[in-house]
Amino acid sequence: DAMVIQNPRYQVTQFGKPVTLSCSQTLNHNVMYWYQQKSSQAPKLLFHYYDKDFNNEADTPDNFQSRRPNTSFCFLDIRSPGLGDAAMYLCATSRIRNNEQFFGPGTRLTVL
Amino acid sequence: EDQVTQSPEALRLQEGESSSLNCSYTVSGLRGLFWYRQDPGKGPEFLFTLYSAGEEKEKERLKATLTKKESFLHITAPKPEDSATYLCAVQAGSNYKLTFGKGTLLTVNP
User: Fold this and answer.
1) Spatial separation of the C-alpha atoms in residues B77 and B85, rounded to whole Å
2) Reduced to 3 states, what is the DSSP secondary structure of residue B82?
3) Would you say B66 and B58 are in contact if contact means Cβ atoms under 8 Å apart?
4) Is A81 on the interface with B (CB under 8 A)?
């Protein structure tokens, strides 16, 4: 089945220690998104790639970076995680920007 | 700024007790309204897209409807496995972003 895969499902890191989260997709979608979702809150868009074109949200902290080496993979790098960055990180894809988005299972990040 | 408000925040039903969830929105130029289901600790699962007022879509016990100001997710004869958080999101104007509501936590008791 075509899907969005995220690894790892759970990630524990230490305050200030860089961490990378991974997303891959077999849907062959052009757009890949990264969201942050904290407990009982709505998902918050961090940035997205339309093909190789990177689009950052204005309020996304510089601490968050992303890479998309090819169509199938996208990475979220958190350079110096703080306690406030503990959250569920969701990857999503869509065929084009104005289509429905399909989400992966998420990575739960804990910062100690 | 696009706004999405979902109500109620939480809803507890008995198995078989039909009800509706509400999503009211304020946007400029609606492109689409999306409903998602989210189970605890998992990513949102896509349910429906609605594009214009009067449109309806159905899937099993769920039916989504859309007016110019709000959308309803009707749940007919719910079962315990329908328990989840239901998220509504809108896409408007030339903005690709999905603006999400905070969701309705639905609990269906056997």
Assistant:
1) 17
2) helix
3) no
4) no
